[in-house]
Write a structure and sequence with these properties.
The chain has 270 residues and is of the alpha/beta class. 29% of the residues lie in helices and 29% in strands. Strand 9 and strand 10 form a beta hairpin.
């Protein structure tokens, strides 16, 4: 890849509270357009226009750029968020995540994982067996950053998602983030639901299951959300993992399958 690639990141806040954030990896000729697009998102957010908008731009060193393939996508149809959480828990158990770890993640995200009971801006790192939290700063968490789709992959992903009625920024950006997280050394799964009070969907992701999207993982109007990255502690280099998640640029130039809908039924329903 000979063209210059830039990492552009936006963070916005209002009355001291986080409003929105977004980022892209873009060639130089698209930099101005994408910067304007990200600022526009901060000014038009459903929570109200941002009062502070910070945009940072860095040239990506070509030798540091990693290319990868996105995970497969499946929608899991559930009736409401309690059923969604039961389904997610069962799938994570099947993926080898310990019950204590899953329950700890759900509890922290429900009550607010930050020390003051609010949502963390970053993610928790959770021991996949015991549920112990491993992130050094429980207020900030770990922020997966510097990832995007190539232009060709973006077009193809949008086409496939549109066929399932899922082509929107929430899904595309969450899928890219999940892809980077799964590519990180030591990470075995992720669980996430949004802190946007108007957005009830969430997802889990594992190497085996791919990206499993749930239309309901939290109640409408709830502002608390978050992310949990489940890791295997044996042989884990925590510093290297955090560095990869936060600093290594990953460009997805290949996409996985966009599958249909998986109907979920609780065992008790049958």
């Amino acid at each position: 890849m000979n063209e210059k690639i830039y990492s552009i990141r936006m963070h916005s806040s209002r009355r001291g509270q986080h409003i929105s954030g977004a980022e892209r990896l873009v060639p130089g000729e698209r930099l101005q357009d994408i910067a304007a697009e990200l600022v526009g998102r901060a000014l038009e957010h459903s929570r109200g226009p941002a009062e502070q908008i910070r945009v940072s731009i860095d040239l990506v060193e070509p030798q540091r750029l990693v290319t990868a393939k996105l995970p497969d996508v499946t929608t899991v149809r559930v009736a409401d968020y309690p059923q969604g959480r039961r389904a997610a828990r069962e799938m994570l158990l099947q993926a080898g995540i310990g019950a204590a770890a899953i329950d700890a993640a759900i509890e922290h995200m429900t009550v607010g994982a930050a020390p003051d009971g609010s949502s963390m801006r970053g993610a928790m790192l959770i021991d996949a067996e015991t549920g112990t939290r491993l992130e050094p700063d429980r207020g900030r968490g770990i922020r997966a950053s510097r990832m995007d789709l190539s232009a060709r992959a973006e077009v193809e992903l949008s086409r496939r998602l549109a066929a399932q009625g899922l082509d929107n920024p929430h899904v595309r950006e969450a899928l890219v983030l999940a892809g980077k997280v799964l590519s990180a050394p030591g990470v075995v799964a992720e669980l996430c639901w949004s802190d946007d009070p108007h957005y009830t969907a969430g997802y889990l992701a594992t190497a085996e299951l791919g990206y499993r999207r749930f239309p309901h993982l939290k109640p409408l109007g709830e502002e608390r959300g978050g992310r949990a990255f489940f890791v295997r502690p044996q042989g884990l280099d925590l510093e290297a993992l955090i560095s990869y998640l936060e600093s290594t640029p990953v460009l997805f130039d290949r996409i996985g399958s966009v599958c249909g809908v998986l109907e979920w039924e609780d065992e008790s329903d049958g």
